[in-house]
Amino acid sequence: xxxxVLEVRDxxxxxxxxxxxxxxxxxxxxxxxxxxxxxxxxxxxxxVGESGSGKSTLARTLLGIERPTSGQVLVDGExxxxxxxxxxxxxxxxxxxxxxxxxxxxxPRMSVGQIVGEPFAVHRVRPPRGRTSAVGELLELVGLxxxxxxxxPHQFSGGQRQRIxxxxxxxxxxxxxVCDEPVSALDVSVQGQVVNLLQDLQDELGLAYLFIxxxxxxxxxVADEIAVxxxxxxxxxxxxxxVYDRALHPYTQALLSALPVPDxxxxxxxSRAIMVEGEPPxxxxxxxxxxxxxxxPLARQLGEGARADGGTGAGRCASTPPSLEPHGAGAAHDGxxxxxxxxxxxxxxxxxxxxxxx
Amino acid sequence: MSDTQxxxxxxxxxxxDVEELVPEAKSYSANQLVVRRFFRHRxxxxxxxxxxxxxxxxxxxxxxxxxxxxxxxDIATAYDKVGDGSPTWAHPFGQNTIGKDYFxxxxxxxxxxxxxxxxxxxxxxxxxxxVGAIAGYFRGILDSLLMRLTDVVIIxxxxxxxxxxxxxxxxDVNLLVLALGVLxxxxxxxxxxGEVLSLRERDFxxxxxAVGTHPVRIIVRHIxxxxxxxxxxxxxxxxxxxxxxxxxxxxxGFGVQTPDVSLGSLxxxxxxxxxxxxxxxWWPGLMILAIALSVNFIGDGLRDxxxxxxxxxxx
Lengths: 358, 315
Fold this sequence. Notes:
The complex is a heterodimer of chains A (358) and B (315). Chain A is α/β, with parallel strands linked by helices. Chain A is built from 13 helices and twelve strands. Chain A has an eight-stranded mixed sheet, sandwiched between helices. In chain A, strands 2-1-4-5 form a four-stranded antiparallel sheet. In chain A, strand 9 and strand 10 form a beta hairpin. Chain B has one domain: MetI-like (MetI-like fold), CATH 1.10.3720.10. Helices cover 66% and strands 0% of the residues of chain B. Chain B has 14 helices and no strands. Classes of the chains: A alpha/beta (358), B mainly alpha (315). Chains A and B meet through helix 2, strand 6, helix 3, helix 5 and helix 6 of A and helix 1, helix 10 and helix 11 of B. Chain A: It comes from Myceligenerans indicum. Chain A: One of its GO terms (molecular function) is ATP binding. Chain A: This is ATP-binding cassette domain-containing protein. Chain A: Keywords: ATP-binding, Nucleotide-binding, Transport.
């Protein structure tokens, strides 16, 4: 088994909320609140979760744009926080990002050649056969015509722009690519092309992907492992087959039941939808215990009385934060394959998963 | 080559990518589009021709410094008076009280006024862009300091402080340009700061930061080029304001000092001649009007060209 190229240990990112004249820190937005995972070379970790669950903050922290409040990010086993100046420069080259909106991700005043070639200029890198040919090769790699280097972003379609963004991210030969919803702003027909391109590039270059999305279908297609995020924490993690077909956490089940089923007969008789009511709680003041218990259908099912007793029953939901622990079939594994883990006190006692395919 | 490339890459039936490509014959860069929209603005074109004509005539007629112009009279010599000094073929703009050629004087005044106006435009644009970019990009305490400084400059009555500084310059035109420049950058600084605040959150700036680009390079390469619209428009309007400010100062006697002249000082000197020898008043007044109007029109045209959503032109 190869060593993990990226390892994140208990990553926390809080944004201070300052109030009043003296700008005292009164509170903190807990954008990312204790996230751990590993990614190996050539593998993809898909991160799903609704808006505001901290996915994008996670991405920005991995890129080094935000400094983590606590926790560690290890690239090739080295702690990013303790890197020297040169090491940090190298890190910039190892971790790159593909953005969600191809219309704001490219500087409208720079030509494609300047955009894709800028990482070389910033890092004073001289590619073997010169910068121009390197840019041409990158464009070819992502399926664009190298003859278009002198064009400007507005002359390209969304899918082509996304390819330009990918070419720029690949310029410095990174080992980890953070894709923050790389296809959600694209037409469905183009989404497939870009996803296929990303997969081909992964095979060719051995890249590790952190693939953030809220489209569960796309994530299932690309990911080797899936992590579900809710309010800055991972609530479920495991191989796609396990997570999709044997979801353990009530939140994951709700997410999956919201997936559109491309079969009218199913939809007409669909009584399996698990409704989660209300908005996510404020990350400034997350609920005590399990962050999801205020909206959790399972906790409601287990009853008010059980929630309040605070002992062995469902009262733990409101008092004790659950930890991410192996459950189900994955529990038998001994760490060689990604185990199926969920942060729910009652993951084992769940009724039959609601999303079994017909 | 282009076709084979697109097809051989074979990402599914992805014709949509290829079809949406703007055909070569109709592709313009963002700047070319701006230029095209500007040239459709008739008022701005007339204004540009007018301004160009004023500049060319002002600088070629009496020449600049040691370089002689095509006009056969200079500003220093008192010529024999023809009649009461009203415009004649020999002196098309007339003569002043002691017989100096008023065309030469007006042209010299136009030169000085234009120099001051463009100089002030340059200085204030440089300061305003710098302050706005730094405040907007770095935010935090630097932003607070620079914006409070801006507020302080804004609340000082412009004409009063300009008069004091103008007096201190002792008639040195370059110092006057500096003095007026450090008083007029405030609105641009605020505009640029606002633009930068929104631009710095764009993904392409994030991408540059992710690569490890130095902040100075990010500002110069990624942010400022995208504020060029605001900057150019504001610079033009500052030039228009500066020419009027210089006129007002010189009229009050705090600007350009004799023996040099500007359009404002000419009007000031001959304000009592308005009823008796009106040409001494009207010619410089007309020049001020022509320059201020055309610069304003050009500014309008540029604003429409850079921001087509706010267009006020028909069609």
